[in-house]
Amino acid sequence: MLLIARGVLPAVFAIAMGWLVGAVQHRAALAAPLSLMGITFVLLQVLTPVHQAVSANLGNRVSAYLNDALAKACVGPPGIGHLEDPGLSEDLTVAREFDRGQTGPPMYLNVDFVAGSLVELVGGLASAIVLFGFTWWAPLVLVAGWVSTHWLLRESGVWKDRNTAEVRSAQRHATYAYELAVEPGAAKELRLFGLADWTVQRFTERRRRLFELQYAATRLRERPMIWSLLIIAVANGLVFWALGAAAIGGSLPLDRLVVFAQVSIGVGMIAFGGLNWALDGAAAPVAAVRRLQPAMAPAGALPVRTSAVDAAAVGAVRVELRGVRFGYPHADRQVFEGLDLTIPAGSSLAVVGQNGAGKTTLAKLLCRLYDPDAGTIRVDGADLRDLDVDAWRTRVTAVFQDFLKLELPLRDNVAPAGAPEEDIRAALADAGAADLADLDTRLATGYGDGTDLSGGQWQRVALARALCAVRQGAGLVLLDEPTAQLDVRGEAAIFDRILTATRDVTTILISHRFSTVRHADRICVLEHGRVVELGSHDELIALGGRYRTMFDLQAQRFAAEVDEEGMSYDTL
Ligand SMILES: Nc1ncnc2c1ncn2[C@@H]1O[C@H](COP(=O)(O)OP(=O)(O)OP(=O)(O)O)[C@@H](O)[C@H]1O
């Protein structure tokens, strides 16, 4: 309504002006035409800022809708393949970054442009309708002339090529360099390794490339420009010639001439303005989100079998992997090529192997973040794919290497889904973090009551989260380098407590530290996607194979340590 009202006002103003001229000519009363002119003028002034506010609001709502839709598309799938899929990452960048204003106006401005341009379109059409009062062909000629500019100049649209791979890739790199520059996480090493200038240069280069692409797309191409000018000149020449001829011939009185001359100019509002460009700018993130939604769902999907088994069991879990084959999507290398492994319920298994051997991938498969390409993973005899994913995930818990640091109070970091306070405190104590902070202290700086933790302290919190989940019923615990950031003293002390706390559940410990590994009931050595050795520490040492070699290598570098207080640590 607002849009149409604003659009027709210029035509109404032209009519009022003609009425006023006629009234002056015929010495009639001026009050009515003057009032109409006044009201129209005031409305024109008032409606513009109102309209801008409404369209900015609409733009913000569109942004919020897109952000919501993207968040749901990312979080919705039960697996995580869609977030690690290189084929989706460029769309993800466009969809995520659209409102930062780096690659085009933010959504609220785009929507304002679109709304403003639609007002002009309505205004031009309203003028054309009034012009029918002069003659039938004049508005048709003018509208055709001005509409042709949309078609002819469309080719020069700012972001006509916005969705090309080159634009998206330049955009992604520019964003990456920008984040490196502004995020605190990268600040230390950027400075230490002298990368600050490189980052700025990289950002500037990518931005320049984006501007070049933008300019190339914007550049008015000569031929369509000349055609546009010609068509518009001919159309306006014809109409104004006809208006002049009619006025001179006496068939068009002055008041009508004033109206028709004004609306003839007004039809020009239809011309190619910011509409196409703004529509492109507003449409690109919408298109990216709409492409992502259907693409992400299958990439992160975990097929549900019809014969779903209830996973609401309790106690330690028995895990069996048979002939498991797995490769990450789009990767040319298989991580597992027929992995066989059995982990009895209530036992602890340490997994060792070189970097990239697949230890973390094994943990991801057991959490069912991915399904194997072939083979089966059975828990307590049931195929993991037959279990309800959410129910299974209440039975498995993990500390990953890149564990989550929630900007929430310590209490919520330990029990994100809630747990009795005594369990939270006990879990913190088991992780050696009993005195870390008050449970209600927010673990983030930048808040009045917040505090940040050291790397090792954060690791204890992540450990406490897993141990708290054990108290809530998890039967399988995956610990991926759970003590990597702890000091030797802390590690030795905590490890015993972890073993006690996880005594009744099945534990899989991934570690390069043989001082912790040796405590596990059994140790498995992963190599080239297979188990090459399996047994207790003593058995594998006696075997004299891969484990023995790795153990001896580390043993040469670590002797029993005695600190300044005379305490000795069994580092190996
Ligand atoms: N998201 C991913 N997409 C593609 N390939 C991946 C992905 N994550 C891991 N890989 C590859 O899978 C292989 C196994 O990785 P994984 O992280 O399981 O090794 P790891 O044994 O845990 O290594 P580390 O000891 O360094 O932690 C590696 O070759 C790695 O490059």
Automatic annotation (TrEMBL):
What the entry lists under InterPro entries is as follows: AAA+_ATPase, ABC1_TM_dom, ABC1_TM_sf, ABC_transporter-like_ATP-bd, ABC_transporter-like_CS, P-loop_NTPase, Type_1_exporter
Q: Where in the cell is it found?
A: Cell membrane
Single Gene Ontology MF annotation: ATP binding
Transit peptide: present as a keyword of the record?
no
- Taxonomy, superkingdom: Bacteria
Could you tell me the keywords of this UniProt record?
A: ATP-binding, Membrane, Nucleotide-binding, Transmembrane, Transmembrane helix
One Pfam match, given by its short name, reads ABC_tran
According to the record, the segments passing through the membrane are 28-47, 229-252, 258-279
Topology term for the membrane? Multi-pass membrane protein
Q: Which residues form the ABC transmembrane type-1 domain?
A: 1-269
* ABC transporter domain residues: 319-553
> What is this protein called in UniProt?
ABC transporter ATP-binding protein
